[in-house]
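for the writeup, i need someone to sanity check this before i put it in the appendix. the sequnce is what the collaborator sent (i think, or maybe the updated version? ugh). structure was predicted straight from it, no edits. if anything looks off just tell me and ill rerun, i have time this weekend
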Amino acid sequence: MIILGSTSPRRKNLLNKITSDFKIIAPLFNEKTLPLSTKHYALEESYNKAKSLESKINKDDCLICVDTIVFYNNKIYGKPTSGIEATSFLNELSGHEHEVISGYTIIYKNRIIKKEVISYVVFNKLNDEQVCNYIKNVNVFDKAGSYSFQDDKNYNLIKETRGSTDNIMGFPTEEIKKDLIELGLI
């Protein structure tokens, strides 16, 4: 059985693009205990989430845990903790290209697969009204960098993207699918 170690509805929907045969378990790792100190934070976070669940799965289960960050100008943009921080994030990203980095860990039998996937997003130059309207109407508090690709059609924050859009939404389906095929699970 494939197990998604996540409570994210977006990750559940994206995993459904690969297979509908999976269960969900909430990670036991408290992500607030890992400092936002390295560009590889998402990979470390996914690994810690996976290790927190490893003893909760059966020996033939395949566990997938993912975390995503936004990285710009040597700074990690995780989930904002306040409206002020969300405003700051969006203003700092305005008019610039940044990386969206997802780290994922797959544990299956005696194997551990750890990988990072990077996509690139260029923001339009945003004005104060756009930023305020976005924060008022979108739940920015569960999104790295204070934004989501899937909400952008209504708000026009994003000018262009390069790489996996599924990765930008927090689950790099293309790479994870390759690993699941290699493991003989799909």
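The CA atoms of residues 31 and 153 lie 30 Å apart. The mean pLDDT is 94.
thx in advance!!
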